[in-house]
Amino acid sequence: MDEKIFPSYKGGSLIETLDNLEIKHSHLDGPLRIPVIDKYKDGSNFVVLGKIESGTLKRKDQIIVMPNKLVGRIKKIHLHHMEVDIAKPGENVKLVIQGLESAKESDVQIGNVICDIDHPLAPIQEFIGQFMVLENKSIFTIGYAANVHSHCVGVGCTLTGLVSKIDPKTGKPEPKKPTHCVAKGIYTGVFRTDYPICVEKYDTIRQLGRFTIREEKTVAIGTILKVKPMK
């Protein structure tokens, strides 16, 4: 643009600015974590779609699909319809995985997590979460059952313990232990899932540490404070 039209601006064009942006990858050197968004079997290979939330993936890397502990090797990585040799956090990828010839298509499920072979994500069935109740359709207390959703996984769960109610002004637990949850209240509770899932603490990887509780629609949202790996 001519300086006479906008004399105060001395920078480059929009396209130049976008081209010069430095992309910062969080968890670039962390353990590999790719939640499975979709999958299908193509001959002897599995084709998996997912987003890399942590770690760097290279062609020929050995991986393990959790929680079913299926070990394979990356044959191809597709990024934006192009085949590449390496992919980083934040990128949506299509992976061709070999070495799972004996596995059935149902052995890899949406919500499974692809990990590097040396740092598998341990499956859990119990976690402690801090959550806010948006509305109550049922009595929200110990024994309350609904569905929990975290990243791509959704499974039935039960509230097995109420630890504390959080004071919204101070962010600290109130001295009196709650007996039930009410709308707009913030609580810490223990949840048990109907079958093993793979999640992370919110402080470790935020994308794998958020959860929602749904009963036809979302009734609570929260973050995972602590996980209890299965033995």
What does this protein structure show overall?
- With 231 residues, this protein is mainly β.
- It has 2 domains: 34-116, Elongation Factor Tu (Ef-tu), domain 3 (Beta Barrel), CATH 2.40.30.10; 124-229, Elongation Factor Tu (Ef-tu), domain 3 (Beta Barrel), CATH 2.40.30.
- Helices cover 3% and strands 48% of the residues.
- The strands form 3 sheets. Strands 1-2-8-5-4-9 form a 6-stranded antiparallel barrel.
- The N and C termini lie far apart (65 Å).
- The mean pLDDT is 92.
Helix % is under 10%
CATH architecture assignment name of the largest domain: Beta Barrel
CATH class of the largest domain: Mainly Beta
Order of helices and strands: HEEEEEEEEEEEEEEE
CATH superfamily of the largest domain: Translation factors
- Rg over alpha carbons: 22 Å
Query: Termini separation (Å)?
Result: 65 Å
Short synopsis of the structure:
The protein has 231 residues and is mostly beta strands. The protein has one helix and 15 strands, in the order H-E-E-E-E-E-E-E-E-E-E-E-E-E-E-E.
Helix-strand layout with pairing:
Elements: H1 14-19, E1 34-42, E2 45-51, E3 57-58, E4 62-66, E5 70-79, E6 82-84, E7 86-87, E8 92-98, E9 113-116, E10 124-133, E11 145-150, E12 153-166, E13 186-197, E14 210-215, E15 217-229
Antiparallel strand pairs: 1-2, 1-9, 2-8, 3-7, 4-5, 4-9, 5-6, 5-8, 10-13, 10-15, 11-12, 11-14, 12-13, 14-15
Which terms would index this structure?
six-stranded antiparallel beta barrel; 3% helix; 2 domains; flat; 231 residues; 1 helix; mainly beta; Elongation Factor Tu (Ef-tu), domain 3
